[in-house]
Amino acid sequence: MSRATPASPSQPPKAEGLRLRARLRYLYHGASPLAVRFRLAVIVIDFAIIGFFLAAPILHEAGRVFYVVDYVVAAVLAADLAARAYAHTDWKDWLRKPATWVDLFVLATLLFPGWLFNFGFLRLLRLWTLLNSDFFWRTIGRKYDDTRVEEITRALASLVTFIFVVTGFVYATFRGSHPGISGYLDALYFTVATLTTTGFGDITLPGNWGRVLSIVVMLTGITLFLRLAQTIFKPHKIKFPCPTCGLQKHDPDAVHCKACGVVLCIPDDGA
User: Fold this and answer.
1) Number of separate domains in the chain
2) Which residue from 58, 164, 172, 195 could staple onto 124, CB 3.0 to 4.6 Å apart?
3) What sign for the dihedral angle of Cα 102, 149, 35, 266?
């Protein structure tokens, strides 16, 4: 008489893993009210983490308390990144995204604050990756039927991120070695004064590298500022793909596609 073959013990964990992945995909990519509320909570936590990054140069003086908060933030960020990777259809494709490597580097500065604290100013890139992510706009931007708010927000995020990354770099590099840079506010003041080409001259960075940095700040800052102004004042467009040629943006009152001339039927929410 043959004995019954026992059930494979590997099946239940595999099934549980599949259910967990399906649940994470539902929360991170779903359109239900529960999934949207979950992503809103994640975004609120992200902004709180970014606030901690902004205050880190000041909080660093708190010593042990700072490191406790630092590792708590690292644990939260690591859990979020692991969940996003597990919920992604192809984790290799997820790893190929530049924003993923930025987030991984931010996590490294949190896990090794003693060694990488001088690179802590790059943590503010988290603001840029958040406001330029599909995750953010699928949650926040889903209420908008045009791209104007999204374009202005992206341009503003680039400018603000650049200002605070440069501020952190100047603070970490020149604090203590330059009499004009004694605190974070001094570094922020220098960055804004240089970016706007005001040129008060009360704080100037020494040496050739200081001049090179000032030139980079002026050129890049003016470019980002002009991009923001152009985004704000350029003619209003809405996103409505042309069914024939695929042109994405049109005037709100457009009747024909400017590229191929096909008749468009753009919904008018104000009607």
Assistant:
1) 3
2) 164
3) negative
Within a domain: 4: no
Q: Which among 154, 149, 155 has a CA at the least distance from the CA of 239?
A: 149
Q: Does the pTM exceed 0.90?
A: no
Amino acid 168 reads G
Which range of residues forms the domain containing residue 45? Answer: 16-143
What are the tokens at 230?
């152009």
User: In the structure encoding, which two tokens stand for residue 229, read together?
Assistant: 């102004």
Q: What is the pLDDT of residues 159-208, one digit of tens each?
A: 999 998 888 888 888 877 677 777 888 888 888 888 887 766 677 777 78
The secondary structure of the chain, three-state, reads CCCCCCCCCCHHHHHHHHHHHHHHHHHHHCCCHHHHHHHHHHHHHHHHHHHHHHHHHHHHHHCHHHHHHHHHHHHHHHHHHHHHHHHCCCHHHHHCCHHHHHHHHHHHHHHCHHHHHHHHHHHHHHHHHHHCCHHHHHHCHHHCCECHHHHHHHHHHHHHHHHHHHHHHHHHHHECCECCCCCHHHHHHHHHHHHCCCCCCCCCCCHHHHHHHHHHHHHHHHHHHHHHHHHHHCCCCEECCCCCCCCCEECCCCCECCCCCCECCCCCCCC
What is the spatial distance between Cα 108 and Cα 78, in angstroms, rounded to a whole number? Answer: 10
CATH classification of the domain holding 36: 1.20.120
Q: Please state the φ and ψ torsions of residue 266, each to the nearest 5 degrees.
A: -80, 125
CA-nearest of 121, 17, 130, 33 to 77 is: 130
Cα–Cα–Cα angle for 26, 27, 33, rounded to 5 degrees: 100
Q: Give the span between the Cα atoms of 20 and 25, in whole angstroms.
A: 9
